[in-house]
Specification:
The chain has 18 helices and 17 strands. It is of the alpha+beta class and 467 residues long. Strands 14-11-13-12-16-17-15 form a 7-stranded antiparallel sheet, sandwiched between helices. β16 and β17 form a beta hairpin. α10 crosses α13. The chain is globular. 48% of the residues are buried. The chain binds flavin-adenine dinucleotide and zinc ion (ZN).
Length: 467
């Protein structure tokens, strides 16, 4: 590997080499659960530079860890501790290459932050509907590579459903130009789907063609109190029947979630005078104005109240109040972190079975670990729960974390029983690699390994992740 650093620098120039003192931040994940040591951190400025880097990595058999905004939650963008892996950070490739409002597409480089992508769409009078709490930092390449979900999936789908074309640099340095903005293209295998959700194990995504949508003219947001997750499920069916595609978000959170947010975020206001067992945040968007949207929401909630589907409802009267309601939902994760360490799961179930899953799994955990506190919330409309477990009050948090494997076993076995997935939107990375082998069939794993071997025969793409 003699002279590798000089050859890397010759490709990306001095601006593209991260100083060793600054490299540590790129080798540590967002949650600070994983930390590695990189051979170097490089920031190429063009697809040609990425191709040259991949060629060099192939010749020298250097493992390459693609990285975007480094907000991933499963350690996927963190190098190992060997000091021999190259972190290839895409952040400098952040140009908007083209916007076609009539085709309703935009072509962006992988290093565009999600917030910049949303702003570029807005400037062209269009909506790019992907939305995550990390949108100020996460990047389009990372969103594609994790097939990110977020809060608009119910209406617009996850990142996979928003991508029409990709440009990818392969392990050998070849550049695949698949930047097609077509909604119909049946010309054999759909290669882009391989790279979406691959977490950097098959190639480096350098650019993408993404779908745009008309801007909604009106919005309405409500928080609703319900007896149980079962009742929330009935409400979902009712809301979908009444609002159809206007229903954009349907987010469930428990009483304890709200309690934690109110404790750690004093600026947040409780939506009701009294506490209720569960809450649902409902978001509606329409091509008519906000008055019309609020009217539709009111009609839907009025009928739900009459049918005994809900206990109470609060409808946001302004944009500020709507943001206040969303803050209740979006601050849950951070509020739970303020409360102390906890055990996280990101699971999905068939929507029809979400409530039964919560009932059965809560009971199983309570039997095995009496007193633990379930912090359960998520994108109920997508069947996706952030099913987190906090220690019983007064129990020392680090000691509690020793139960992680046993608790995750109960949760993930229950997920399998209900025909769900152990990773709904965060991915596998390094944190769920062993779990993957337990819950996928041998045949499915074999097919995945064959694809990996075909595209990355030397095994240099993000080694140690996913498979
Ligand atoms: P990184 O963390 O840099 O990388 C993620 C993975 O993608 C790694 O395996 C990396 O190797 C690979 N990768 C990155 N860029 C490329 C590329 N150009 N080519 C090939 N591989 C690449 N996720 C959700 O799905 N929904 C949420 O609601 C959500 N909310 C979040 C809220 C917070 C506060 C935080 C911190 C995270 C949240 N996440 C959420 C997780 C995270 O933001 C997403 O996974 C996001 O898509 C990661 O993007 P990134 O640019 O930060 O990727
Ligand atoms: Zn989520």
């Amino acid at each position: 590997m003699t002279g590798v650093l000089a050859r890397l620098a010759a490709i990306v120039g001095p601006q593209g080499m991260v100083a060793p003192d600054d490299a540590k931040a790129y080798a540590t994940d967002w949650r600070k659960r994983y930390s590695g040591s990189a051979l170097a951190v490089v920031k190429p400025a063009s697809t040609a530079e990425v191709a040259a880097l991949m060629k060099l990595a192939g010749a020298e058999r250097i493992g390459v860890v693609p990285q975007g905004g480094n907000t991933g939650l499963v350690g996927g963008a963190t190098p190992d501790s060997s000091g021999r892996q190259l972190v290839l950070n895409l952040s400098r490739m952040n140009r908007v290459r083209a916007i076609d409002p009539i085709n309703n597409t935009m072509t962006l480089e992988a290093g565009c932050t999600l917030a910049a992508a949303q702003a570029a769409a807005l400037a062209a009078g269009r909506l790019f509907p992907l939305s995550l709490a990390s949108e100020g930092s996460c990047e389009i390449g990372g969103n594609l590579s994790t097939n990110a979900g977020g809060t608009g999936v119910l209406r617009y789908g996850n990142t996979r459903e928003l991508a029409l074309g990709l440009e990818v640099v392969l392990a050998g340095g070849g550049v695949w130009d698949g930047l097609r903005g077509l909604r119909k293209d049946n010309t054999g295998y759909d290669l882009k789907q391989l790279f979406i959700g691959a977490e950097g194990t098959l190639g480096v995504i350098t650019a993408a063609v993404l779908k745009l949508f008309p801007l909604p003219q009106g919005q309405a947001t409500a928080v609703v109190a319900v007896d149980s997750a079962d009742q929330a499920l009935q409400l979902l069916e009712h809301a979908q029947a009444q609002l159809a595609e206007r229903l954009v978000g349907f987010e469930l959170f428990s009483s304890l979630c709200l309690e934690l947010v109110l404790r750690y975020y004093p600026a947040c206001r409780a939506p009701f005078q009294q506490a209720h067992p569960h809450y649902v945040l409902i978001e509606l968007a329409d091509s008519r104005d906000s008055d019309a949207a609020r009217e539709m929401m009111e009609d839907m909630l009025g009928a739900a109240l009459e049918q005994g589907l809900i206990r109470d409802a609060a409808l946001a009267a302004s944009g500020a109040q709507s943001r206040g309601f969303w803050a209740l939902r979006e601050n849950i994760s951070e509020a739970q972190a303020h409360e102390g360490k906890n055990i996280k799961h990101d699971v999905s179930l068939p929507v029809s079975r979400v409530a039964e899953f919560i009932r059965v799994t809560d009971a199983a955990i309570a039997r095995a670990f009496p007193g633990v506190r379930m912090v359960c919330f998520g994108h109920m409309g997508d069947g996706n729960l952030h099913y987190n477990v906090s220690p019983p009050a007064g129990v020392e948090h680090d000691a509690f974390l020793a139960n992680q494997a046993a608790i995750s076993r109960i949760v993930h076995d229950s997920v399998a029983h209900f025909c769900g997935s152990i990773s709904a939107e965060h991915g596998i990375g390094q944190s769920k690699r062993d779990e993957l082998t337990r819950y996928k069939s041998q045949l499915e794993l074999d097919v995945m390994r064959s694809i990996k071997a075909a595209l990355d025969p030397q095994g240099i793409m993000n080694p140690g992740k996913v498979l």
